[in-house]
Amino acid sequence: MTAKKGKLFLTIIYEIKLKVNQVILWVSIKLGLVSSILIVPYQGFSNQKELYLAGRVIRDNRVKKSTPTDRIWQNIDKMFRRFNTVVIPHVQVKALFAGQEFFTKTNEEGYFEFKVAIDASKISGSRWQNVELYLVDQIIKGQGYVTAIGKVVIPKGTLDFGVISDIDDTVVPTGAMRLTEMLKTTFAKNAYTRVPFAGVSALYKALEKGRDGLESNPFFYVSSSPWNLYDFLIELLEVHAIPKGPLMLRDIGLSRTELIAGSHEAHKLEQIRKILLFYPHLSFLLFGDSGQDDPEIYLQIVKEFPGRILKVFIRDIHASRHEFVKRKSKEMAQYGIEMQLVEDTLAATRIAIENGWILPDGLEDVAVEKAINENATE
Fold it and tell me: Where's the Phosphatidate phosphatase APP1 catalytic domain (predicted)?
């Protein structure tokens, strides 16, 4: 099949998918299977002049928060609900922020984005600000008001640096190199039973505080996990007291041009570029793992943004990847940046202290938490 025919084929298949989605929505409404609509806002971010907030409008699948006592079948049921999505396309969403109104429409997959001009100097209070969201259009009878509160971070104060971190096999073990293990972990566990790597919370808290001990350094989590897992990952960060920050996930469904929309590498590069361009005067630490393409992705970022990356931390998750990381480290060294392969959070903490990025007492905090975490899993 030629490239032209391949693109035409994907376009046809994608249009069929959209028609199927329309039919599913129409039938679901007619049969009363859509009893309420949900606006799902994704945590956004702002600089001094522009605000970015995305989200999705879907049927309310009534996914309740997890508890420590949830059984495997309950975890599987929640995951099924997350992926059994009925999207609401082409509807208008209103945002209210700092006394201003903004409007946008969901796309054919139910996603919406706000990219709006603001004056952050006039906004007081916490670095996390609320954005009120309202669904303008009537979708079902007796719909009532459909509202949500979006959260946007506006970094304030003396910023030492920002942190961009992967999640899978960087913050929490996933087994991404072993498909069966990854599927079992994803569907059978919840935010309480999926335990992060020992000491991650203390390390990331220390980085958030930075050199002055104030929680001001912003965090961004860039992952190739699908948006369907957004609420689960937010809950995971909250349960394990890991600094919150915008999650930048991806839509893994069929698109007009790709069988799986957005490759792992392309998605992460696009999102990291977006962050670096949004904060042009801020340097960053990058955290990833050796399991997939993080070393290659971060090398490309170092090339594109000279002087913007302080250091790259790669969690060592498998010996088979040592040679690959070593090669990428040598290439990165040519640009004056070190890619450090680290065994655990203590190793990363020591390096951060040596470079003056966190306070010395952070080492004890990480060591204590790491010991507690490891004892709890024995």
Answer: 161-316
CA distance between the termini of the chain: 54
Q: Tens-digit pLDDT profile for the chain (378 aa)?
A: 565 665 666 677 777 777 888 888 888 888 888 889 999 999 999 999 999 999 999 999 999 999 999 999 999 999 999 998 889 999 999 999 998 999 999 999 999 999 999 998 888 888 999 999 999 999 998 888 999 999 999 998 889 999 999 999 999 998 655 667 777 777 888 999 999 999 999 999 999 999 998 889 999 999 999 999 999 999 999 999 999 999 999 987 665 555 555 577 899 999 999 999 999 999 999 999 998 899 999 999 999 999 999 999 999 998 899 999 999 999 999 999 999 999 999 999 999 999 999 999 999 999 999 999 988 775
Enumerate the domain spans of the chain.
34-153, 162-376
C-alpha angle 354-289-342 in degrees, rounded to nearest 5: 30
16 token code pair: 């069929």
Name the token pair of 49: 């002049």
Two tokens at 204?
């990331």
| CATH code given to domain 34-153 | 2.60.40
Distances (CA, A) of 197 to 62, 169, 189, 360, 371: 30, 8, 15, 21, 11
User: 366 and 207 in contact (C-beta within 8 Å)?
Assistant: no
Helix (H, G, I), strand (E, B) or coil at 226: strand
pTM reported for the whole predicted model: 0.92
Taking alpha carbons only, the member of 315, 271, 313, 272 closest to residue 291 is 315
Q: How many CB atoms lie within 10 A of CB 240?
A: 18
User: 162-376: what CATH class?
Assistant: alpha beta
Instruction: Determine contact, residues 279/155, Cβ cutoff 8 Å.
Output: yes
